Structure formats: structure tokens, C-alpha cells
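FAQ: What does a ligand-bound record look like?

Like this one, built around 5'-O-[(L-methionyl)-sulphamoyl]adenosine:
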Amino acid sequence: MKFYITTPIYYVNDIPHIGHSYTTIAADIMARWKRLNNFDVFFLTGTDEHGAKISEAAKVKGKSPKNLCDEMSAKFRETWELLNISNDDFIRTAERRHFIAVENIVQTLFDKGLIFKKKYKGMYCVGCERFYAKKDLDEKGRCPFHKTKPILQSEENYFFKLSSFQDGLLERITDINHKEHIDVRPEERRNEIIGKLKLGLEDVSFSRSAIEWGIPLPFDKSQTAYVWVDALINYITAIGYPNDETKFKKYWPADIHLMAKDILWFHSVIWPAVLMGAELPLPKTVYSHGFFTLNGDKMSKSIGNVISPQELVGAYGVDAARYLAVTLMPFGPDGDISWQGLTLKYNTDLANNLGNLISRTLKMAEKNFNLKIPQVVPDLELAKNVAGILKEGFARNMDGLQLHKAAEVLQSAITLVNRQIEADAPWKLAKTDINKLAARVYSYLQALAVIAMHLLAFMPTLTEKIWQIIGAAGNISDIAKKYFADGVIPENGFSISNADLQIPGILFPRIS
Ligand code: MSP
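The answer part, i.e. the structure of the complex:
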């Protein structure tokens, strides 16, 4: 089975901040989780490099658009490397392969009579790279996202007959039995999209005559493709459209396009309409998460309250930063974050719960057995209870992109083992029944192995380390793939070798 997941391609007028990181980390966790579940995953991210916004940013910085794009796109790549993002490709819309795909789609739509020329006057927001109808602006006539007044533009452009897709789109979004159903999520946002669709669709501008930094239309080189059309097509360019049919057929349609609510309309309406026009299959799920604010304020450079991914990693380390980013607020609605909240969650979930479980287990093994636990008949009851809790809630929440809930389930499994240790009172057993203590410590290690396999997608590096510390044999990904395929713990438990137990050191130092 294949699984194709995408993030938005980010504008290169700005450096990557925690907002971009949020979407990308979530997509990465999903991609890793699906790989562990034996899917053939293709995970795409990249940069959106054309249009007015980028040309203007280049002008302000006194650079050529090409230089700005090279420089900033590299920053995104570096950041994703820092965050241990496992994307299979990184697309840049200024690449040659993308020009070919855009030319192909635009020409196809033109040949089908879906593109026509028209003189147009409208209010354009450069920040959003889109025209706004008056009714969609706020009470002061400003863009609802950028709070700036759009500029009046008048041009002769090519237009796409979006209006002719209204009924087709409504059917595909509302009818879950439609063979081309698009699952727009979460539900409240799907309802908003349906509501807007019902009001009717206007044809949209598909080209710009004044913007040179873009992809010229194949049938009229004096105009460039509208940046959003250009951008959306990246999702098929990267998997080989139009020249690598085998790869394209293997991965298309996308299983999940992931993004925030700001650009849901483009992904759930415009993009499917373009695909319908070109007679290509439609994405299966379009998932938009919320926007987060920082201490109640919108993050913005002018307020100076932007958190950088580098700062987050500096404060908590890469693995914890990934975990915290996606668990601090529910995935879907808007939410507020703060450094205080991040640190509290770090201390509660990672230092106190998980870190404590690992360190107390290994300390018991060290103190009582000098890290050589006597051979015992494996008691797998605790590991099975942990597996039971996780089976109930973890996979369902992961597959539904409720990453914060999946992490909650994981935390409750960790709590269960910590409670069991307290109930077992190993410090008493050490004096009364050393063999029983050996069996209990062994059972904690087995439970930790199950926990580690579920943690792996969130914290890839630290979890591999945990796997080694507990002396678990083999490569954790391979063992996890088998475990998730079989759905049961091996009869004699996971192979844990005494010789390989390690003193953990402090994996998650408490932060005050
Ligand atoms: N280039 C377009 C996308 C084209 S996709 C075919 C674009 N780029 S963007 O750089 O503005 O990125 C927007 C996306 O960044 C959001 O949809 C979201 O994924 C992420 N976020 C940016 N700021 C965010 C928050 N404050 N909160 C949550 N996500 C945020 O739009």
C-alpha cells in the first residue's frame, strides 16, 4: 500500500518559523508512522518561489529573485534537517521539472476550453497572493489574514472557468460514497467550505501580465501562470508528472494534503477543480489545522514574538521539540502556546513520566544486578496491558491525525508502568525476593520496548537510544514494522540482552 503526504510549499520571502515547522513536523510524524505500518510512503515538502510576493521581497533585499530563492530555500532545507524531517523529496517551483508540469496542465486546460481571456479589476492582497471580493474583506476593507488593504489591480488576464465545477465539487466533498470523494477535514472547516461553495463560484484569474518572475503560459508567453496555480501543481510534479507515468500512477492521488486553515480553500476547491479539468484523480484527504498564537498574540515579525525552530531545538533538543510542537495544542482548532506551557509539558510528559520510567528501571537493574539481570521466565502481562491501551487509542488517533491525542494515550501507557512499579515496591523486593525483582525489572523493560515502538515516529533519535539503553536487540524500525503487522507481542517477548543494558544518563533533564 502506498501513502502520499504533502505539506504546503512555503514562501521563501521569510525564514522558517515555528508555524511552518508545526505542519512539517506533523507530516513527518505521519510519514514515519505510516512507514512503520509498512506503507510505501512518499513525503513531500518544498518551497514556493514565484509571484509578486517573492519579487517584492527580493527587491526590498536588493537581490535577484533567483538569489533570494536559492538562499531562502536552502534555509528551509537546513531547518528540516535540523528537525530530522524525513521528506522523500524537496521541490522548488523554480526547477525545470516543475515548469514542464505547469506548462502541461495549463495547456491541457486551455485546450479543453477552460481558460479564457478577460479584462479584470480587483482587490489583490500580495501577502495572500489572491484577489478578494469586497464581502470577504473585514469591516475596515482589509485582508482578514494580513490586516492590510489589498491593492486595486486592473489587468487583462487569462481566467479559469472555476464556476463550472461548483456542482461537481459539492458532490465530491459532501457525498462520502462518491468514488472521487474528497475528505475535507476537520468537519467544521468542511462545513465552511460547503457553505461557501453553495454561494456560488466565480471564475478565477489564472495568469498575471505584470509579474515576470513566474512560469510563462505556453500559449501566451507575455503572461505568467498565477502563483497559486503554479504552486498547487507541485504536488504532481514531484511524483513524476507528466513524464514518469509509473511513479505518478504509483503515488497519485495524494492521501493527505496537510496545511493550515489559511489555504484550505485553494486545496479543497481550486486544486480539485484544476485536477477535474485536467481529468486527473482528486486528493483523498485535505486536512487543515489551526493557527497558533503566542501568548495570545498572532506571531509576527513586527511584534517580534516569532519562535524559531532553532530556539525550540536549543531549549528542548530536537526530539522533545518535535514532540512538544505537535502535542501542545489539539490538532485542528486554533490554539495558543507559550514558553511556559512548552516547559510545563516537557517536564510533565518527558522529564517526569517517560524519563523517570527509563531512569528508575535501569537504576534498579544497575543497583541490584549490576546491569546483569538473571535469566527469568518472561512475564509479559504488563507489556500486554500497555499494548492493549495503545492498541485502543494510539493507531486510531495517529491515522486520524489527532497526534496530541495519540500522545496522550502514550502518556497513559507510561503512567501505567510507573504506577505498576510503585505497586510492586521493588525496593522491598530487593530485600525479600531478588528473583521476583529480576522478573519485575524484566517486565518493565518489555513494557518499555512496546512504548518505544510507539514513540519512534515522534522522537526518532532519542527512541533509538532508548531501545539501546534497554538492551533491546535488532533495529527498532524493523522490529516495530513486524510488531505493527502482527499486532501481537512475540511469544517470548522482545529480545532483550543483558549484556547490552546501559546506564541511561539523563535523557530529559528537568527544566525550571
Ligand atoms: N506558498 C503557499 C502555499 C502553497 S501550497 C501549494 C503558502 N506559504 S506560507 O509560507 O505562507 O505557508 C503557509 C502555511 O504555513 C500554513 O498553511 C501552515 O501550514 C503554516 N503556518 C504558517 N504560520 C502558521 C501558524 N502561525 N500556525 C500554524 N501554521 C502556520 O501559503
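Follow-up question: can I read anything off the structure? Yes, for example: Residues 339-369 form the longest helix (31 residues).
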